[in-house]
Design goal:
The complex is a heterodimer of chains A (269) and B (257).
Chain A lengths: L7 H5 L8 H26 L3 E2 L13 E2 L21 H29 L1 H6 L8 H12 L14 H23 L3 H6 L1 H5 L4 H39 L31
Antiparallel strand pairs in A: 1-2
Chain B lengths: L5 H32 L12 H15 L26 H8 L6 E6 L5 E4 H5 L4 E8 L5 E10 H8 L7 E6 L5 E5 H4 L5 E6 L2 E2 L9 E3 L12 E7 L12 H4 L9
Parallel strand pairs in B: 1-10
Antiparallel strand pairs in B: 1-2, 3-4, 4-7, 5-6, 5-10, 7-8, 7-9
Classes of the chains: A mainly alpha (269), B alpha+beta (257).
Chain lengths: 269, 257
């Protein structure tokens, strides 16, 4: 199989994309779903912008906190003299349809990521990076707003890895769990799902905060892409190619199944 | 020397993709046929949100056909239950109210051997079920109350429900207020024709004198002021065929989510 070893030139071209096609497709499906969930979720909150803790809560009980916006329901005491139009019908339909698409895409991604070693080689920090010194090095570069090295276009740094792992393995599972805990049908089958969260209203409040963390991630994610070079990073996630000349050395993100000791400069065939 | 295996690979890829697509399409077709046979397709399965709605309903029916809604201890009954807003009550309701609801009737018809017209005291002669469950509104709020009434399946059994029955359609005395549930919810032990709440008669604000409580679904399926039940094998003949006033207003028919 030696005859199939790519020469240096082919490493530079689009045959060796920055992101695997599976990552790119699932990334954009998830992005579209997240946008739909965010819009519809915000719309649903407008019908009752009050949050509680425990099992129950309504207009007659004191809230944990309120969002100071007008509501789309007449009886909610908002302090505003008007009521917004009810949009919950399509919002709920869209929310659940997007949730299904996101969860099914996420399942495929998780299976693929475990199967190909994507998580191990591209997301879990390498042993050398699992130190405070290494993390601080990346952080100080960020704080000083240093332009990323060309090599940074080829592999995630330790902060990126931590953020992506947090989103994929903590925030997404939590937002799914707290969302399911709002379904009276699901709760009848799996009552522990809502009871462990401290009750229905606690689940709703947690769902809101986890969504807010995901929104915060999205804002930082987009800000980082703009700072690192919007065109090159977007091109990498859409077409898979990096700007010519930057991909001359080092492994690319598709060398996913490469064993750690092989990581430097070798391509798996 | 580099051989160029691209043709071979692309042909193999093409064949694989073709097989996968064929398997996918026939898998979907088989799934659709099975889903239809086992009653996993909701009446609002058409339109752009049909796929998500069908997945939700089918998944819930596979998972929750017999499960019970959570019941709570007495100590968790809400001190201040929230009645929600209702439209001004119509004249027929006010006449029944003036008579202390003695003349209130629940008519049971459609696919039953013996259609019936039951007064509230007739309903009270059936076995009683009391349960402390949560009312959950799609807007986000909730409260817990004790609900007392006749399980719907008692009435259906007494009326001799026919085997081809698939849905129960139920109507409020208020115009344009009706909903429907499938048989899994209709024969569910917690689906109650509720006439009392927290040890007193069911207050008008909470749907008195008679409300169908479906505690495994959101509050909008628990229609207030029930006067009529129709057993049917199809929702096509009712309104726009979507199975309720809320689905016709853009809300999902299945509200277990």
């Amino acid at each position: 199989m030696l005859s199939d070893v790519p020469d240096a030139a082919s490493l530079r071209n689009s045959e060796h994309p920055r992101h695997a096609v599976f990552v790119r497709v699932t990334h954009w499906i998830t992005a579209i779903c997240f946008f739909a969930l965010l819009i519809s979720g915000a719309e649903i909150v407008i019908s009752h912008p009050r949050f509680y803790w425990g099992e129950t809560g309504n207009d007659l009980t004191p809230p944990l906190f309120k969002i100071p916006i007008p509501a789309s329901r007449n009886l909610v005491p908002t302090g505003y003299g008007y009521v917004l139009p009810d949009q919950n019908g399509w919002s709920r339909y869209l929310h659940f349809q997007a949730a299904w698409a996101a969860v099914l895409t996420g399942l495929l991604y998780a299976i693929w990521g475990l199967w190909t070693g994507h998580f191990r080689s591209n997301l879990f920090p390498a042993p050398a990076e699992r130190t405070w010194r290494s993390a601080w090095g990346v952080m100080s570069k960020h704080i000083r707003l240093k332009r990323p090295d060309p090599a940074d276009a080829l592999s995630y740094n330790v902060l990126q890895r931590a953020a992506y792992l947090m989103v994929i393995f903590v925030l997404f599972p939590l937002v799914i769990w707290t969302g399911l805990a709002l379904s009276p049908g699901f709760n009848s089958a799996v009552p522990a799902g809502v009871n462990l969260l401290g009750g229905r209203q606690s689940a709703r409040t947690l769902h809101f905060f986890i969504s807010a963390f995901l929104l915060l991630f999205l804002i930082v994610h987009v800000a980082m892409i703009v700072l690192a070079g919007f065109t090159s990073r977007m091109r990498a996630m859409i077409t898979g190619t990096t700007i010519a000349g930057t991909a001359t050395t080092g492994p690319t993100m598709t060398s996913i199944a490469t064993a750690p000791q092989q990581r430097v400069g070798e391509e798996r065939i | 020397m580099r051989r160029a295996p691209t043709n071979k690979v692309s042909r193999r890829k093409f064949v694989t993709a073709g097989l996968a697509a064929t398997a996918g399409v026939s898998g979907l077709a088989a799934a659709a046929a099975l889903a239809k046979r086992y009653g996993l397709i909701p009446p609002d399965s058409g339109g752009i949100y049909g796929p998500g709605e069908t997945l939700t309903y089918a998944a819930q029916r596979l998972l929750t056909r017999h499960s019970l809604a959570r019941e709570f201890p007495r100590s968790m009954i809400s001190k201040v239950p929230f009645a929600n807003e209702i439209a001004p009550l119509n004249d027929p309701f006010k006449r029944f109210q003036a008579g202390g609801f003695r003349d209130w009737r629940l008519s049971v018809g459609g696919m039953v051997a013996q259609p019936a017209s039951l007064s509230l005291s007739d309903l009270r002669s059936f076995p009683v079920r009391s349960q402390i469950t949560e009312v959950v509104c799609e807007e986000g709020w909730s409260y817990v109350a004790q609900w007392i009434g006749t399980p719907l399946h008692e009435i259906l059994n007494a009326s001799g429900i026919l085997p081809q029955a698939r849905y129960i359609v139920y109507f409020s005395i208020e115009p344009d207020w009706w909903e429907s549930i499938d048989m899994a919810d209709a024969v569910h032990p917690q689906t109650l024709l509720t006439y009392a709440m927290n040890d007193g008669d069911l207050p008008v604000g909470f749907g008195g004198p008679l409300r169908l409580r479906v505690p495994r679904q959101l509050g909008y399926k628990s229609v207030k002021f029930i006067t009529r039940l129709t057993v049917t094998d199809s929702l096509k003949g009712f309104g726009k065929g979507l199975g309720g006033a809320n689905p016709e207003g853009g809300y999902a028919w299945y509200a277990g989510i």
